[in-house]
Amino acid sequence: MTGVVLVTGGGGVGKTTIAAAVGVAAAEAGHETLVLTVDPARRLATALGLEQLGNHPEPNPKLKGLSAAMLDSAASWDAIAYRHAPADIAERLVTNPLFDAVATRFPSGQSYAAAEEMTVHIESGKWDVIVVDTPPASGGIEFFASPTRMRELVGGRLLRWLTGAGLPGRRGLFNLAGRPALRLADTLLGGPLLEQVAEFLFDLRTTYDGISAKSVDIEQHLRAASTVVVTTADPGPLREALRFHEVGIKPALVVFNRALPSEWLAHEEPLVDGRAAAALNENLARWALEVRRQEDSRADFSGRVATPVAAVPWLADAPVDLEGLRAILAGSPELSLDRLGI
After folding, report:
1. Right CATH number for 3-156+208-330 from 3.40.50.150, 3.40.50.300, 3.40.50.10090, 3.40.50.1370?
2. β-pair type (66-70, 33-37)
3. pTM of the prediction?
4. 58-59 and 66-70 as β-strands: parallel, antiparallel, unpaired?
5. How is the chain split into domains, by residue range?
6. Interval 230-270: pLDDT, tens
7. Distances from the Cα of 207 to the Cα of 9, 85, 211, 315, angstroms
C-alpha cells in the first residue's frame, strides 16, 4: 500500500523544501519515493533530480529510490479530458481556450488536476511513498476542497439546466435551434464567443461520470493521507494554518519553518559594555525578543488545536542540494517518518 504525505500551507512558507526533505528521508529509508511538486526553485529542482520539469517522474541520479515530477496543470487537464471524455470530444476540449482557462487560471482547476495526478500515481502501485507539495491556493485548503468543487462544476444545476439530462437529444436540439441563434448573436457581437461557450459546456458535461467517480476516489486518498501543514510564526501564515482545523482537516503535524535558535535568548542581556557596543546589544536583544515571540506563538498554537508541532530551524541559505535537505530533518527530530506514518 502506498503511503501518502500531503505537505500543505500558504505560499512562501517553505513547504516545497519541506516536501523535498521528507522525500529524501523516505528514499534513504529504503522506500521507492515520488515527490510531486508544484513550482520548485531551479536549484531545488536540480537537488531533486528534475533536470526537465514535467508530469513524468524523473529518477534522481544521486539518490536511489527518489523520483520527482513537477505538476503541470495544463498537461494534467489534457490527460483528464482524454481519460473522461470520448476521444473526439476530448480533442475539442484540449483546443478550447475556455478549457485552457479552467486548467491554468482557476485555483480549483489547478488543485483538482494536481489531486487527480496524485491519484493516478497512487493507484499505479509503483510507489511506496508519495510526497505531495500541494498548490498554495487558499492557503492549501483548495486542494482538499477541489474534488467536491469540480464535481459540482461538471454536474451542478446550472450546467445540467443548460445541457439537459439526456445529452444526445438535447445536443441535437441545440444544433437545430440553438446554434443558429447563437451564431446570429455572435455576428452582432463580432466574434464566436457565445457559440464557443455553449459548445464548451456540452463537451464539459460529458466528463461528469468520469470526474464524479474519480473525485470520490481522490477524497478517499486524501482522508487516508498524512497531512503536514507548514507555516511560520508570522500572523498571516498562522491564520491559514488554523483554518485547516476550523474546516475539519486534522493534520498529523504542523511545521513551524524558519524557527530562530533558542540560543539567541541569551542575548536578552547585554553582551558587552561600552557606548560603541550599544547598537550591537540593542540589535541582539531585538532578535532575542523575536525568538521569544516565535516560541510563544508555537506554544499558543499547539495549545489551541492540540496538534503536534515541529520547529524547523532557520537556515542562512536555502537548501539547494541533497545534503542541505538532509540537514532539515536532522535539525528537527519531531519531523520524523514515524510521526508521518511511514
Report:
1. 3.40.50.300
2. parallel
3. 0.85
4. antiparallel
5. 3-156+208-330, 161-205
6. 999 999 999 999 999 999 999 999 999 999 988 888 765 65
7. 30, 5, 6, 46
